[in-house]
Write a structure and sequence with these properties.
alpha/beta; Arc Repressor Mutant, subunit A; D-Maltodextrin-Binding Protein, domain 2; 3 domains; elongated
Amino acid sequence: MLIRHLDFFVTLAEEEHFGRAAELCGVSQPALSLAIRKLEDDLGMPLILRGQRFQGLTAEGEKVLIWGRQILSDYGNLRADLSGRRKGGLTGVLRLGVAASAMPMMAQFCEYFEARNPLARIQISLADGAGIEAGLTDFSLDGGFGWLPARRAKSDQAHHLPLWQMRLYFACRKDHPFAAGGPVSLADVTTQPLCLTADLPLLRPALKPAILCSGLDGVLAHLRSGAWCSLVPDSLTALLAEQDEIRLLPVSDQGESHSLGALLIRREPQAPMVRAFEEALSGFSGQMAA
């Protein structure tokens, strides 16, 4: 069985289209089909449901997809480890899934990581909690930053490292009727036209936002217009400009603060990039605590 054939199969399973998969793999469609036939012959079973177009995976194909992702990840990690040893430092890409509320703090962590791994690059993707968990599980992410649950589910495989304690604030323009007052209750928040981020923890199910945004930048644009208010973590302050006329008011009855932190899955052997991520997290958290 060739690694290249396994890569073709995983690409086809993810794209669900022979033409797109062949283009991504840099081969012709007949060459892609031939390689997958050879993989099926090597394993002694059909992996895909064939018709005039891609129709899905067989039950055996679903199992091979899970193993294939892991094998390809391990193979890539092996090559990165060997390459890093030759070049005198870690090379490759640190792939991070980051929740909207954690995005404003990423520059601080990336600066810390890059200083210790100057040959590595960082790729950041916006992701919610489910997306981060899925990416860690299927090896498409090395780590993540997001809201950490107060109680972990038994099925949660990720290691959690709390980094920031966040309070939620009512956000509005300075000409809003609430802007000149003190703390705002959740009951008062629900009376306002709201634009929220989709990753807002715990309180969002009790609210009925008119608009949901994937990131804090979208929320900030709506706040600046004056037509909407929001409920935001204090990480939003990193995005505010001096000329912004946005006011952040405490929410009186929000309960305890909420944790934003890092997530990763510990495996043996640990991938060099994940190991570097965990080592950087350890130093970074110590630096913030100092």
